[in-house]
Design a protein that fits this description.
The protein is α/β, with parallel strands linked by helices. It has 13 helices and 12 strands. The model is unreliable at 2-26 (pLDDT under 50).
C-alpha cells in the first residue's frame, strides 16, 4: 500500500527528472491540425472534388489549401461551395494558391466569398532573376497585400528553390523579405524547396523570426529533387515542428507531388508518421 510519503518521494523524483531530462515532460505533445495542399490530389480533385474532400476528411485532414486549376481556384466549385463542403466535413478552408493576373479582382472576390484566411501567390510574377525584379515584385506584393487586407484576407507568397539563388552577393529571397511589409505580406515557407536549395529552414526562422505563419511541410528526396513520404527524405520534420514558434507557424499543409504508390496512400503514410512523433 502506497503512503503519502511514497507519493511525495515519487513526485520529487519526477520533478528532478524534468530538470535533468526535460524531454520526459515537454516532448509529449501530438502534432495538431494537419493540413493538405490540394495540389497533392490534383487529379482526384479534378475528377470529383467533393468526393475527394470526403476521403481526405476520413484520413484526419483538418486544414485545406486549394490550388488554381483549369476548373478555377476551387476545382469547379464556387468559393462558397468549397467553404461549405469543408465545413460539413469538419475541415476548414484556410488558404489558396492563385496567380496574379488579369483575373486578380475575381480571385480576390472569390476568396472573400470562401471565407478563407490567406491568399497565396504560388510563383514569382514578372521575369528575371535580378535584384531589381525582386524589388519590383516586393512593391507589387505590398500593393496586393493592402488590397487583401481591405477584404479581411492575408496575402502571401510561396517559394520554390530558385528564390534562394545569389545575385550580386545577395540571396534573392532575402531581397523579397527585406522589401515586403510584414503587416501586408505573409510568407508560406516550402520547407522541402528550402532544403533542396542546401539551406536549413531554421536559419530563416531565426533571421526572420515570426514571418512564416504557413508552411508546406514537404519531405524531399535530394537525389531526385522530388517530394517523398515523410521520413524518407532530407527534411528533419520533428526538428522543424519543435521550432514552430520561432517561425510564427499557424498552419502547415502537407504537399507531395510524387508518390511511392498513389496520392491517398502517401497521405495516409504521412498522417501515420505525424501520429507517431511527439514535439
Amino acid at each position: 500500500m502506497k503512503t503519502r510519503r511514497d507519493f511525495l518521494k515519487n513526485a520529487g523524483t519526477l520533478a528532478l527528472a524534468s530538470i535533468v531530462m526535460p524531454e520526459l515532460t515537454f516532448a509529449t505533445a501530438k502534432v495538431k491540425n494537419p493540413g493538405l495542399q490540394l495540389y497533392s490530389v490534383r487529379t482526384e480533385m479534378m475528377a470529383d472534388a467533393k468526393g475527394t474532400l470526403k476521403q481526405l476528411a476520413g484520413l484526419g485532414i483538418k486544414q485545406i489549401e486549394s490550388a488554381r486549376s483549369t476548373k478555377g481556384n476551387y476545382y469547379g466549385l464556387t468559393g462558397k461551395e468549397m467553404r461549405d463542403t469543408c465545413k460539413e466535413l469538419d475541415m476548414t478552408l484556410r488558404s489558396g494558391h492563385v496567380a496574379i493576373d488579369a483575373k486578380w479582382q475575381q480571385t480576390l472576390d472569390e476568396a472573400a466569398e470562401s471565407g478563407q484566411e490567406y491568399l497565396i501567390c504560388s510563383s514569382l510574377p514578372g521575369a528575371g532573376q535580378t535584384v531589381d525584379n525582386y524589388k519590383r515584385v516586393a512593391d507589387l506584393f505590398n500593393k496586393h497585400g493592402e488590397e487583401c487586407r481591405k477584404q479581411g484576407i492575408k496575402f502571401g507568397y510561396h517559394n520554390h528553390d530558385y528564390e534562394f539563388e545569389k545575385v550580386d552577393g545577395q540571396v534573392l529571397y532575402d531581397v523579397l523579405m527585406d522589401n515586403t511589409d510584414p503587416k501586408l505580406v505573409y510568407m508560406e515557407l516550402d520547407l522541402g524547396w528550402v532544403v533542396a536549395s542546401g539551406i536549413n529552414p531554421l536559419d530563416y526562422f531565426k533571421k526572420y523570426k515570426g514571418r512564416f505563419p504557413l508552411w508546406h511541410l514537404k519531405d524531399m528526396n535530394m537525389q531526385k529533387k522530388h517530394s517523398t513520404e515523410y521520413g524518407k527524405g532530407a527534411l528533419d520534420i520533428p526538428k522543424m515542428l519543435e521550432h514552430q514558434n520561432e517561425s510564427g507557424l499557424k498552419y502547415f499543409f502537407m504537399e507531395q507531388e510524387e508518390y511511392a504508390k498513389s496520392p491517398m496512400e502517401s497521405i495516409k503514410y504521412n498522417m501515420d508518421y505525424l501520429e507517431r512523433i511527439r514535439i
